[in-house]
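call fold target=Chalcone-flavonone isomerase family protein
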Amino acid sequence: MEAQGNFVKIAAIGVYLEDAAVAALAGKWAGKTADELAADPAFFRDVYTGEFEKFTRVTFIWPKTVAAEEFAGKVMESRVAYLKATGAYTDAEAAAVEEFNAAFKSHSLAPGASVLFTHSPAGVLTVAFSDDSSAPGAGIAAIENKALCEAVLESIIGERSVSPATKQSIATRVPEILKGGA
């Protein structure tokens, strides 16, 4: 996030892949090095569009409380631009963006709080919140829109990633998993 002209880290991000990701990614990516994966946008595209479940945890480390609505607005601002640029923004995506923003309206994100996203292979983005390190029992919104579901994860690990460290972590870990070193 930019603050007073400087880039500041406001969150730690973890991306987790379902076991089915191993079989889905192995055919094309097994035998590649971490550097090869990190440099290949097609690899990350295969992750965020893959037919397996993904889970993303965004934990806030910024020392001030952030309005969740502000966070959602920043996320959706870039995602709407991305979807429009790829020709994937329709009335359905506009409705999904409204639903996404509505899910964040009554929340604040204090240091240590997390936003949790489950990205289903069917294109359902489930949104949940945790005020601490616990896992909530259920999501507060399930947004049925494949383009938006993929676009949220694309913002984290895509070509214009908001978290190069998360991308590098995935690129480093996946070769170990694909060769059975997990």
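return ok
The mean pLDDT is 93. DSSP finds seven helices and nine strands in the chain.
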